[in-house]
Structure formats: structure tokens, C-alpha cells
Amino acid sequence: xxxxxxxxxxxxxxxxxxxxxxxxxxxxxxxxxxxxxxxxxxxxxxxxxxxxxxxxxxxxxxxxxxxxxxxxxxxxxxxxxxxxxxxxxxxxxxxxxxxxxxxxxxxxxxxxxxxxxxxxxxxxxxxxxxxxxxxxxxxxxxxxxxxxxxxxxxxxxxxxxxxxxxxxxxxxxxxxxxxxxxxxxxxxxxxxxx
Length: 194
Ligand code: AP5
Ligand code: MG
Prior knowledge:
- By secondary structure, the chain is α/β, with parallel strands linked by helices.
- The chain has helices spanning about 15-25, 30-40, 45-55, 60-70, 90-105, 115-130, 140-155, 155-165, 175-194; strands at about 5, 25-30, 80-85, 110-115, 165-170.
- A 5-stranded parallel sheet has the order 2-3-1-4-5.
């Protein structure tokens, strides 16, 4: 089963992806985590994207499309994967459709975590405290830029998938376990259709 989890910064994509990994044996593919690993490893790609990520802007479509295309071919994705933070532009969504078609794979569910923007700063600030500031972009100023990028570049994916009748929405303001239940209901429905 292959799933997309979408939503703005702090919506709970990573939280729910990890729960799904454990519950369903799917692989979480977070482009943000992959890029942060490149930065920690001081690879050429990491050095290239660090300033962009620290500023709250999106890295180029080409970089993340290639990253995901390579990653979903790995053996640990055979049972399925959860895309967390990808696609993030309409060009990425189109490239994903094309690459999945070419690889003979499909998407079982595209789920949007719907949240109030006003709640996101508190979540990000709490995570910054809990992780000892592990993420350079977890601060009020950069969150604002990440939200601007979400609205300008990522939100247009919603009508792209809605137009195809493929998007399901869940209330991302509910408690973590309730969000998990809402997602489970969608996936169990999708599994029956498939
Ligand atoms: P990325 O790492 O994807 O970050 P993001 O989208 O900004 O989202 P977050 O990871 O901050 O939030 P989340 O939705 O995962 O929430 P979480 O579960 O952690 O991207 C970072 C950067 O990488 C981008 O800015 C860009 O530069 C680059 N990038 C990545 N992908 C890209 C792409 N495809 N194209 C181009 N550039 C790309 O939860 C947040 C907090 O809230 C946690 O503390 C959690 O405990 C809490 N929480 C979660 N759920 C709930 C709940 N229901 N109730 C209360 N608290 C909750
Ligand atoms: Mg995340």
C-alpha cells in the first residue's frame, strides 16, 4: 500500500507516518529527513541544500524527484511506502504520477491533514524545545517562510488531486490517536477497494 500524507509544516505528517510504519509495515519516506541526513553527512548535496532549507524555501523539484524515484526502488519499499513531505509542488505531483506509472506502482490513498495555521507555531516551538533545537528551521521566523512556501507552491496540489477525486481529508487538529484512527478508516476502506 502506497500513501501520500500531506499538510503544512507541523501538521503531523512525520508523527503519523511513523505510526503507520510500525502498524502496517510500510516505509516512511520523508524528503525532509533525507535532505537533513545529507546535511549532517556534509555530502555535496547536503552542502547545496543547507542554506535553502534553513531559509524555509523549497529545494528544487529535480533534486527531490530523483531522490524519491531512487528510494522507492529499494527493497524496503516492496510492502509499500508513505510519502511524507513529497510531492510539494504540482510539478512533483505530476512527476510522481509518471514515475509510478513507469514502475508499475500505484497510490492507494492521498491524505491531507487539515490544521489551523494558528496552532502550528506552538507545535513547532514545542518540538524545538523537545529536540534541543535539532532543526534549524524550527523557529517563528522560518516557520512563517515555510508556511508561505506551503501556500504558494504546495497548496495547489490540493485541487490537482481533488480534481481527480483522489484526495481524502482528515482533521489534523484532533489528538494524535484520533488522527491515527481517521487515517486507519481511510486505509481500511482503500484496502477493501484494491
Ligand atoms: P519537512 O521536513 O518535510 O518539514 P515540514 O513540511 O515543514 O513539516 P514538519 O516536519 O515540520 O512537520 P510534520 O507535518 O512532519 O509534523 P510532525 O509530525 O513533526 O521539510 C523541511 C524542508 O525540507 C522544507 O522546508 C524544504 O526546504 C525541504 N523539502 C522537504 N521536502 C521537499 C520537497 N518535496 N520539495 C522541496 N523541498 C523539500 O509534528 C510537529 C509537532 O507537532 C511535533 O512536536 C508533534 O509531536 C506535534 N503533533 C503532531 N501531531 C499532533 C496532534 N495531532 N496534536 C498535537 N500535536 C501534534
Ligand atoms: Mg516532518
